[in-house]
Predict the 3D structure of the following.
Amino acid sequence: MKKRRKKLLHRDLKDNVEYYLLMALPLAFIFIFSYLPMFGLVIGFQNYSVGRPFFGEGVEWVGLRHFEKFVSSYYFPRILKNTIVLNLMGLFMGFWVPIVFALVVNEIRNGKFRKFTQTVSYMPNFISTVVVAGMFLSFIASDGIITQFLELLGIQAKSLNANKEFFPWFYTLLGVWKNFGWSSILYLSTLSSIDPSLYESASVDGATRLKKIWFITLPSLLPLIMIQLIFAIGGMLSSNTDMILLLYNPSVYSTADVIGTYVYRESLMGGAYSPGTAAGLLMSILSFILVFGANWVSRKKTDFSIW
C-alpha cells in the first residue's frame, strides 16, 4: 500500500509539475508577508523597544498587561463602537449592491453595452485611495461642488469635512462606490456558469424574468453570497484604515476613530509597538471568532460554509 501511494504521488507530481511551479511564487509570497510577520506578535506580551531582541536576555515579559490596558482604556469604547458602526453601515448599504448590479448586468442583452457597463464599474477600484480621498475632500470643501449644490437647495453645508455626523455616511458611500463594480466580478462569473437550459425550461413554463431571477439565478448565487457574508461578518472589527486616515481630522474623531487608526497612532506615530501589537492581536482573535460563528450558523441554516 505504501509503495502504491508513493507511486501515485510521484505520478501526480510528474503530471502536474507545471501547476506546482506556478503556485510556488504566490505561496512563497504569502509565507513571507503573511506568516513570517506573525513571529513579531510576541512583542504584544513584552515591553518592547526598538533594538531589543524578541527572546533572550534583556526581554521584559509583561503577560497580558497591554491587553488589559487596551480594553480598559478611555478610547476603547469609542473605537470599538465606531468600528462596528462603520462596518455595519458598510454591510447593510454595500453588501447587496454588487449582487443587484451583477443581476442587472446579467439581464443586459446588448453585448457592447454590457461590456461598457462592466468596464465603467471596475474603474473606481483602480483609482488610488489617496486620489479618491483628495477629490472627495475638495468636493465637500467650503467652495466644493457638493457644498455649493446643497446650498442651492437651501441646505447649510459649510464645513462638511468637520461634521462628525456626516463622516460615517461619507465613508460608507465612498467605499460602496469604489468597490461595488470589482466585487460584482465573482457574482458575474458564477452567473455565467448557470446552465442555460434552466432558463429555457422556465421560459417554456411561462416564467417571467423576475421569476427566473428568483427561482434560478438567486439560488445559484446563494453559496457564494453566504461565503461572502461570512467573510464580511469576520471583517466587522476591521476597517479601511487608509481611507479613514486620509479623510478624518480631529473634529470627527468621535465618529471616525477606529481600531486601525488607534493602532496606527500607538505603534507607528507613538512608538508604542507592544500596546499596538496587543490591540491588533486581540482584534484578530475576535475576528476569527466571528468568522467561526458565522460559518457555523451558515452551515446549520443553509448547508453552505467555508469549512
